[in-house]
């Protein structure tokens, strides 16, 4: 996965140019900032900083974490990201801060988390956050005829996509599509009241830590 996104860095943002998705993207770009106004935000898998640019102007601070130096190099070039800080790191081994974060955002990351590590990831994330912190995850819906087809699931039920890059290389990428029930079941042990929002091509899932 790390190698794939490093290789894809320069062409990653092409995914946001699909004509049929523009309406959804404009709605989400307006919806997202209010979730983080005045907050110290930890962004997981920040990538090229596409979503950071809508969060950073309203947040008190943003730390964008990603495993790929190549994508973070692009993130730093966006004018609206000038106040953000960046860290190369592992989403399963998040940095320990002296001051816990007020909020967390994970855009298009959770679908790449293996089923067997979803709870592990969320528990690790929650440990970096204050009581009352907001967690927002944004990701893809599977839309037949538009999304990249899925391969047969593995023994654990994870699904994959075969993705091709401009250099002609092919990559087998883990890509799961959890539904609202799956997500609510995952956070049930946290005693939170989650909110699920759906657009035509995307979903968002939120909860506030007690």
Describe this structure in words.
The chain is of the alpha/beta class and 210 residues long. It has one domain (2-143, 178-208): 3-Layer(aba) Sandwich (Rossmann fold). It has six helices and nine strands; from the N terminus they run H-H-E-H-E-H-E-E-H-E-E-E-H-E-E. The chain has a seven-stranded mixed sheet. A hairpin with a 5-residue loop joins strand 6 (160-164) and strand 7 (170-174). The protein is globular.
What's the layout of helices and strands?
Elements: H1 2-8, H2 22-31, E1 40-44, H3 52-55, E2 61-66, H4 69-75, E3 85-88, E4 101-107, H5 118-126, E5 129-140, E6 160-164, E7 170-174, H6 180-187, E8 195-198, E9 202-208
At a glance:
The protein is of the alpha/beta class and 210 residues long. Helices cover 21% and strands 26% of the residues. The strands form two sheets. The chain has a seven-stranded mixed sheet with strand order 3-2-1-4-5-9-8.
Quickly list its features.
Rossmann fold; alpha/beta; 210 residues; 9 strands
Q: What is the first-to-last residue Cα distance? A: 33 Å
What can be said about the biggest beta sheet? 7 strands, mixed
CATH topology grouping: Rossmann fold
Low-confidence stretches: none
Strand order of the largest sheet: 3-2-1-4-5-9-8
Overall average pLDDT = 94
- What quaternary form is this? single chain
Instruction: Return Rg in Å.
Output: 16 Å
Helix and strand element order? HHEHEHEEHEEEHEE
The name of the CATH architecture is: 3-Layer(aba) Sandwich
| Structure classification | alpha/beta
Q: What is the count of structural domains?
A: 1
Amount of helix = 10-25%
| Global shape | globular
Number of strands: 9
Query: How large a portion of the residues is in β-strands, by DSSP E?
Result: 25-35%
CATH class descriptor name: Alpha Beta
Annotated CATH homologous superfamily: Vaccinia Virus protein VP39
Number of helices: 6
């Amino acid at each position: 996965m790390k190698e794939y996104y490093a290789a894809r860095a320069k062409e990653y943002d092409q995914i946001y140019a699909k004509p049929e998705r523009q309406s959804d993207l404009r709605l989400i770009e307006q919806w997202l900032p209010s979730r983080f106004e005045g907050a110290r935000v930890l962004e997981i898998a920040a990538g090229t900083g596409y979503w950071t640019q809508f969060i950073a102007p309203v947040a008190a601070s943003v730390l964008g974490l990603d495993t790929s130096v190549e994508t973070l190099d692009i993130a730093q070039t966006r004018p609206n990201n000038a106040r953000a800080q960046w860290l190369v790191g592992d989403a399963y081994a998040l940095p320990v801060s002296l001051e816990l974060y007020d909020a967390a955002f994970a855009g298009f990351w959770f679908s790449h988390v293996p089923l067997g590590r979803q709870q592990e990831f969320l528990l690790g994330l929650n440990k970096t956050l204050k009581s009352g912190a907001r967690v927002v995850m944004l990701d893809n819906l599977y839309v037949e005829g538009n999304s990249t087809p899925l391969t047969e699931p593995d023994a654990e039920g994870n699904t994959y996509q075969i993705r091709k890059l401009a250099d002609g290389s092919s990559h087998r990428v883990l890509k799961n599509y959890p539904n609202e029930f799956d997500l609510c079941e995952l956070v049930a042990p946290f005693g939170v009241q989650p909110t699920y929002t759906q657009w035509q091509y995307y979903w968002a899932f939120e909860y506030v830590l007690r």
